[in-house]
């Protein structure tokens, strides 16, 4: 045990003695791992928010089908749907997008009593009268809105809306540019009457199959679609798999940054390292002892590089809000997000980053060191 401790201490001294090589290799490791760790943290943060939103929402979603996609559903059967056994409540809503000046906003038309539980007011009140809206705090800050201000949407029916409240957008990223209004106001805004984007069905547990059967008879001959919470969750997960796949493809190109690390670890100062190994062999060192020393060096430099990359990733998210990388995982945002980007740092990606770093450095050093240690001391000292 004492011999291994001495080798570990000697490896530390070698890294401090060859500062240039240690710094360059560490920087290469950090350059490779930093985007990877940050991207995984953003992906996990957004995924968690998405799944939480799905979990707190309806059990079933009722829409019409058009070309294999969700389409607006008429409300003529709404009263019948509400009477279906097992349905606790049926909530029609309108979700659309339009421009508020030069910024794309999400419009949600829904009954005030059916607002999502995660919607927490910062100031003001919930809309109660016609043409009243509640605005996301980030959107309000962007336009410097105050309670009582009036606004209109570009390219839509020129209705004037009065701001009566602001809600926090910390609960999820999609509420950053959202306006809540009554269902009737949203229909008038888009010029769509008697239809909804979807009808949310909250059901008694275990009655989804019975509800599906009843809806079949209600909508017989009409192109309706019924999707449950598990299906929506599957869509969310597939969407993130697609985003992660795109990032992986781009990151594979960036993996070329690992080449300098390998070259530096294996080639920079190689003649000096060969001489050191030759002296070790001449003074009685065994090949396994030399390789153990080199392994300790790579272990330390990998641990330092991976730990630094994790700390810088946390700083990147907490201080710079995931600038320049968030747009890979969150659609339609700028390189500098205007809302708090969620991030979730899990142990497994951090551990994998360390193993990735140590494999990278080992590839660049162990073979060359083994070649030098198996040569005769005279040849290594030349």
From TrEMBL:
The keyword Ribosomal protein does not apply. It is found in: Cell membrane. Its main location: membrane. GO terms for cellular component: plasma membrane protein complex. Residues 251-377 form the ABC3 transporter permease C-terminal domain. Pfam families: FtsX (PF02687), MacB_PCD (PF12704). GO terms for biological process: lipoprotein localization to outer membrane. InterPro entries: ABC3_permease_C, Lipoprotein-release_system, MacB_PCD. Keywords: Cell membrane, Membrane, Transmembrane, Transmembrane helix. Residues 37-190 form the MacB-like periplasmic core domain. It is a multi-pass membrane protein. The chain crosses the membrane at residues 23-42, 246-270, 299-325, 345-367. Belongs to the ABC-4 integral membrane protein family. LolC/E subfamily. This is ABC transporter permease component. It comes from Candidatus Scalindua japonica.
């Amino acid at each position: 045990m004492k011999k291994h401790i001495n080798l570990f201490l000697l490896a530390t001294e070698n890294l401090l003695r060859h500062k240039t090589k240690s710094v360059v290799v560490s920087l290469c490791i950090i350059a490779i791992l930093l985007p990877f760790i940050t991207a995984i943290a953003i992906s996990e943060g957004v995924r968690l928010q998405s799944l939480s939103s799905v979990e707190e929402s309806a059990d079933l979603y009722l829409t019409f089908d058009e070309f294999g996609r969700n389409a607006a559903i008429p409300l003529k059967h709404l009263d019948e749907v509400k009477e279906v056994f097992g349905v606790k409540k049926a909530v029609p809503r309108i979700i659309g997008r339009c421009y508020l000046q030069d910024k794309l906003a999400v419009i949600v038309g829904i009954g005030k009593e059916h607002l999502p539980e995660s919607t927490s007011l910062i100031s003001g009140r919930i809309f109660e009268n016609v043409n009243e809206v509640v605005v996301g705090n980030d959107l309000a800050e962007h336009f410097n809105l105050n309670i009582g201000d009036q606004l209109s949407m570009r390219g839509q029916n020129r209705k004037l809306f009065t701001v009566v409240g602001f809600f926090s957008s910390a609960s999820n990223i999609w509420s950053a540019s959202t306006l809540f209004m009554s269902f009737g106001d949203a229909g008038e805004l888009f010029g769509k009457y008697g239809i909804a984007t979807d009808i949310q069905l909250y059901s008694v547990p275990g009655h989804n199959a019975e509800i599906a059967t009843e809806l079949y008879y209600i909508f017989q001959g009409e192109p309706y679609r019924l999707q449950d919470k598990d299906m929506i969750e599957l869509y969310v997960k597939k969407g993130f798999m697609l985003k992660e796949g795109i990032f992986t493809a781009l990151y594979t190109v960036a993996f070329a940054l690992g080449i300098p690390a390998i070259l530096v670890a294996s080639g920079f100062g190689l003649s000096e390292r060969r001489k050191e190994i030759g002296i070790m062999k001449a003074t009685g060192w065994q090949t396994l002892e030399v390789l153990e020393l080199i392994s300790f060096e790579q272990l330390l430099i990998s641990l330092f590089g991976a730990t630094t990359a994790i700390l810088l990733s946390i700083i990147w998210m907490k201080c710079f809000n995931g600038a320049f990388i968030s747009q890979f995982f969150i659609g339609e945002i700028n390189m500098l997000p205007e809302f708090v980007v969620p991030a979730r740092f899990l142990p497994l990606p951090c551990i994998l980053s360390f193993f990735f770093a140590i494999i990278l450095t080992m590839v660049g050093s162990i073979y060359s060191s083994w070649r030098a240690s198996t040569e005769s001391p005279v040849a290594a000292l030349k």
